[in-house]
Amino acid sequence: MTSFAERCGVHDAARGSACAQLLQRLHEAGAEQVRIGWCDLHGMLRGKTLMPAALPSALHDGLGLVSTLLLKDTSDRTALRVFERATQDEWPGFGGLFGAGNLLLLPDPDSLQLLPWAPGTAWLRAQPWHADGTPVVVDPRRVLQAALARLADAGYALRCGLEIEFHIYRIRGESLDPAQAAWPGEPPQVDLLHPGYNLLSEAWADRAHEALAIVRRTAQGLGLPLRSLEIELGPSQFEAVFDVADALTAADRMVLFRNGVQQALRRAGFHASFMCRPPFANIMSSGWHLHQSVADAQGRNVFQVEAAPQGLDGRDARAVLSDTGAHWLAGLLAHAGAAAVFGCSTVNAFGRFRPNALAPLAALWGRDNRGAMLRVLGGPGDPATRIENRIGEPMANPYLYMASQVHAGLDGLRRRLQPPLATDDPYGDQGARLPTSLDAALDALEGSAVMAEGFGTELMRLYGRIKRAEALRHAQAEDADEWQRREYFSRY
């Protein structure tokens, strides 16, 4: 009798060997439990915890997962009425997600992590499948895999480096009184780790040593290539920088890092928040700066130009990028508005876009200019030549964000688009303005034929519905600040 993994077409001799080695490693490590995790539409890890004896069955025949987890907004409310026939008729092609039935998770035996903050606990990444063995096309990781496959068909691969800003607070108190329970729950009361406004301060780094040591041990214990931990400008704000990797690995690392540091810090009495603008006065916004380059089949950076043509304006993209890099850059600019919702996926994120705030206002690029949306780094002869997209918030789903870059960049390559001259006035009147609200970003996405063709009808429609529900609830909230405290700060 064939296993579910075989019916899905993912089980072969190599996977069988990997499963056997996994079980042996868990036995040798003395694992007492195994968490099976997957990433939802909002970039949050969901999962189930198995005892080691139950793992062989999950590896071969899958693990049941309620399908409505793909229909949740950021409050964990199901955005579609899954038990109503009229809803099912309105959403053809989503039949497997209605009725709150089961999907099946298939764990990846090569993704084993022994969680450094939770002794005796192992972790495996999984992806969902329909019970008939067909893939769930709105699974965010599969969305990125499909985008990268398109890029591979063109002869290229995307490589990404991560700069992630976030906040850490010391928990002063927390109320878990059942009589006061609400949906979402009340966040903890917190204190600052450092007062801020002293960028890269050695003194502030020492004040935050205990928390940063936990972040460092967690990242390194998960095998993440952490380069640095830095004191950012805002009160209790920090930044983590990671080495470059292929895009899928980089996205996996982003999910692991956020999940890991939140859990490890919580055990020690700290609250880590990847919310863009935590709900306090005088806060500094956190961004996620996505560095990207494209490699050919031999692994060479095709953005690199050996020598710039003579006589160019210094602001011409060809002075710093190859033709391929210039086309990719132009694609990112052409589709900046439509892709914005994947980098800025919450109501909260759009409060970051202010003049002279190191966050972009328009679809512009600049040479080593932190006010532009796209900051181009490197130049002739530099194998590290790359584009830094500064639009993102640290809560964004990395799989969807990176997929949006692929679809925009590929369109630039296909149409051989040319970027305008680099800006030297990123907060002036140049360039197409970026969306200033979640609703406006969704409008831009829904008007994009390129994004619709790239992401597919199912993902576009479902993501739009779920995010519209989030925006509507915020608009209807009696206290918008309190809404964001509970919706984002308590859990993200």
Please outline what is shown here:
By secondary structure, this protein is of the alpha+beta class. It has helices spanning 4-7, 13-29, 55-61, 85-90, 140-153, 202-207, 209-221, 247-267, 323-334, 336-343, 398-414, 438-446, 449-455, 457-476, 480-489, and strands at 33-39, 45-50, 63-66, 102-107, 113-114, 121-129, 157-173, 189-192, 226-231, 237-246, 270-273, 288-295, 365-367, 374-377, 386-392.
Structure description:
This protein is α+β, with helices and mostly antiparallel strands and 492 residues long. It has 2 domains: 4-136, Roll (Ubiquitin-like (UB roll)), CATH 3.10.20.70; 147-489, 2-Layer Sandwich (Creatine Kinase, Chain A, domain 2). 35% of the residues lie in helices and 20% in strands. The protein has 15 helices and 15 strands. Helix 10 (336-343) crosses helix 12 (438-446) and helix 11 (398-414) crosses helix 13 (449-455). The protein is globular, with a radius of gyration of 23 Å. The mean pLDDT is 94.
